[in-house]
């Protein structure tokens, strides 16, 4: 699919325009992120805390891992955005996530849920459904996780994506329509939908799946872009979380910037250790020209998805 | 000792054959691991979760850190193999380890215990002895830890190995004979025994001791090889954990692949930061030819060790 | 300020001498650290455990993360030094920190507190003030954190330093005088005071702020140098924690070695991923000649600071 998208002869004028528009909008949000260094509150799993913080710092955001009760709530209220990742949800962190989500909802802080490995694992699956009812701004997962959250699949084995992105497209649209969240499905081609529009981003590199945190850190980067979009809205007089349209653009921007940075880091003969290092360098270096040159984005819009109910 | 083993003039024909056999058997298991991507369930310490996951991903296995109660048991039952590392055993993780080990035993999932820093530290020492009674498939530690687990030493100071590998050889054989586990003792020369045979592997590089997780990630890699060996047995009709002979070969293969990769990563003027990066690259790249060229393995067999009792 | 200090024409003879003395004293302590490999007990946050352990290993110390109750106390009593970092203080870790600090105080183990992000966050702020009453050997933080601990500021937003080092100078001197600790304030110019003397170290690189753990690992390195200084005192007959004068020199040495290593790692076009790797290499390689060549240290002494009370 990427080869197809890469070949200008196979792109319609409409597709070229979509890629151009996405690159420009993403470049504007990336610039705003670097100007505003959104304070990105992460409640995330013990495997990826380090790489998540480093990805945010490299990109230009300010990470803060605050995952204990008594602090997660107050912090979510003042943060620019919040990520809740369910990768290693110990009891204290589960309560902290509940506290943070409630405070974020009240304060208008945009928040992202990453339902890592739900489906097969009962504790996190129950928590994911509980938090889903609190109106997340965005949901990020692989196809298996999105299918499980939409009630349409059995979930993956750990963080593997046993299902393909396209197989999750309908479930993602329905999940978006029902939850009010922008839903992002990671895969060789990333899919992002607000329930009506579907963006497909054919950037990135398979090495992202050979280093831990390749998906999880994208959840934090997504939160950071939502924080940047919000600060832009505030400048224009709004006080709440970004509306769905802003959120859609922010999630597209996060995914595009992240996957283009992965392309800059990858190359022939690059092993996973070297890739992880170069990827942080690339998150710091990626710019508007890279996005314009490399964006492979299509956007389709159609009937709103049927309800899950 | 490595110089001695490196010098072909000092190797008997028997030793050369042992190295050749170990390289061939390890190469077969490495190929099987990469074909089957064993789902490797890790309950491990907070310092090394990231490097452990990255080592498994680089090698070709699928890591999953599931360390909470209510999930650790169900997951151990479906995983290809389990690692329990006692490096930072908080109360929730201790209960999750008990739950996982019980489920692994019931389901026939092979499992590895790494009794980090037992001896001096009371909580983990008690837990290590408790888990030891549940018949681990393999035990991995440095000489001090193995001596402490065998009741023959006072343990190390943290993860340092205050004792030498050879000093632990007798304790390791008795521990293997009494526990039914394959015992691996890490050191400049790694020692692996099933209570009768003793393999000595003189590969590796001292830089492995200058990066955190150099030993802990080997425990996870050992679990992954046990998972790969098991899937091979399953293909041949078996349904349980690998028998002791398969387990011995799998632990030898894990150690050999890991230490040969360390050699590929090391070199003159390589600092510890660069080594850690190159080591992940090497785990992804190491192949049968590297094993054949570099394996320095001897295997001795003798009387079964006397009981610990 | 760094340009000014770099220019010999602007340095008084007194300033040149201070830099020379600091470089020589730091070189001696660095050599002692590498000879004695101080066992450095860390209770630290989940984001930086890995990089902290790797920084200590690269430098030549022996890290041990022991952060559960029942073990933290006994271990603090036998460790060379202790770090308590409040970055992600879950309930078990808070109790472990209390246990460790009590045991360290009783055993004469020098200990460092790093009050990460206190001020805005209530749980850790209360704990920091509680632990402060137990006579830490050293306190390390950014300007916002030191102001908050001294009761003179509102704290930062996460680990950002919203305040400047010089703005915290008076608060740091009063905090040192009242607590009996050496106080280190991180920033573009690091400030270290025992309540009377103030050392300013104008080394380092801004890339340290673009990788997570840039400040937190310095807390652990500070503990390691206090451990090394103590073992030197023990050799000379003392049995307790280093006295304030030794502690001042040790904290200066830790900061100087760490920031000079950062300079060795940085360079034109170096991104944050590459910097993190090269920084570990540099911690292993930094030597007396590097300190002599690069040290930009001034020391002023004056009236003891007024009390906080």
Kindly describe this structure.
The structure is a homotrimer of 309-residue chains. By secondary structure, chain A is α/β, with parallel strands linked by helices. Chain A has a single domain (2-299), classed as UDP-N-acetylmuramoyl-L-alanine:D-glutamate ligase. Helices cover 50% and strands 14% of the residues of chain A. The first copy, chain A, has 12 helices and 9 strands. Chain A has helices spanning 2-6, 13-36, 49-59, 72-78, 91-107, 122-132, 143-149, 169-179, 216-235, 244-265, 272-285, 288-294; strands spanning 39-43, 62-65, 81-85, 111-114, 138-142, 182-186, 190-193, 197-201, 297-301. Chain A has a 9-stranded mixed beta sheet, sandwiched between helices. In chain A, strand 1, helix 3 (49-59) and strand 2 form a beta-alpha-beta unit. In chain A, helix 10 packs across helix 11. The relative contact order of chain A is 0.16. The A-B interface holds A 45-48, 50-51, 87-91, 117, 120-124, 157-160, 209-213, 271-274, 276-277 and B 39, 46, 49-50, 53-54, 57-58, 62-68, 70-71, 74-75, 78, 92, 276-282, 284-285.
CATH topology of chain A: UDP-N-acetylmuramoyl-L-alanine:D-glutamate ligase
The CATH fourth-level homologous superfamily of chain A: Ribokinase
Q: How would you characterize the largest beta sheet of chain A?
A: 9 strands, mixed
Measured on Cα atoms, how large is the radius of gyration of chain A? 18 Å
Q: Name the helicity range of chain A.
A: 40-55%
What's the helix-strand series of chain A? HHEHEHEHEHEHHEEEHHHHE
User: What is the typical, i.e. mean, pLDDT of chain A?
Assistant: 89
Strand percentage of chain A lies at 5-15%
Count of alpha/pi helices of chain A: 12
Low-confidence stretches of chain A: 1-9, 154-160, 235-239
Q: Indicate the structural class of chain A.
A: alpha/beta
Strand order of the largest sheet of chain A: 2-1-3-4-5-6-7-8-9
Q: Main interface pair? A: A-B, 32 and 30 residues
Overall number of strands of chain A? 9
Q: Determine and state the CATH class of chain A.
A: Alpha Beta
- Tally of domains of chain A: 1
Terminal CA distance of chain A reads: 33 Å
The CATH architecture of chain A is 3-Layer(aba) Sandwich
What does the overall shape of chain A look like?
Answer: globular
């Amino acid at each position: 699919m990427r080869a197809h998208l890469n070949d200008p002869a196979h792109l319609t004028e409409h597709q070229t325009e979509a890629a151009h528009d996405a690159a420009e909008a993403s470049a504007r949000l990336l610039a705003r992120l670097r100007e505003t260094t959104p304070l990105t509150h992460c409640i995330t799993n013990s495997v990826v805390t380090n790489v998540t913080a480093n990805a945010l710092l490299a990109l230009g955001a300010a990470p803060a891992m605050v995952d204990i009760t008594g602090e997660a709530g107050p912090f979510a209220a003042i943060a620019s955005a919040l990520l809740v990742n369910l990768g290693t949800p110990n009891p204290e962190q589960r309560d902290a996530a509940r506290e943070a989500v409630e405070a974020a909802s009240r304060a208008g802080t945009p928040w992202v849920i990453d339902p890592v490995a739900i489906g097969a694992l009962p504790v996190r699956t129950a928590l994911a459904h509980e938090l889903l009812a609190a109106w997340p701004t965005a949901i990020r997962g692989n196809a298996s996780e999105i299918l499980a959250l939409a009630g349409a699949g059995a979930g993956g084995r750990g963080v593997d994506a046993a299902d393909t992105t396209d197989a999750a497209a309908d479930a993602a649209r329905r999940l978006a329509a029902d939850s009010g969240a922008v839903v992002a499905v990671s895969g060789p081609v990333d899919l992002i939908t607000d329930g009506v529009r579907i963006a497909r981003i054919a950037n990135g590199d398979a090495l992202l799946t050979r280093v831990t945190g390749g998906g999880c850190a994208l959840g934090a980067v997504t939160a950071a872009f939502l924080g940047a979009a919000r600060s832009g809205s505030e400048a224009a007089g709004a006080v709440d979380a970004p509306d769905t349209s802003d959120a859609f653009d922010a999630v597209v921007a996060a995914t595009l910037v992240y996957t283009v940075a992965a392309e800059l880091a990858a190359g022939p003969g690059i092993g996973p250790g070297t890739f992880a290092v170069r990827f942080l360098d690339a998150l710091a270096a990626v710019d508007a020209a890279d996005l314009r040159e490399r964006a492979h984005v299509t956007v389709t819009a159609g009937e709103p998805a049927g309800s899950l109910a």
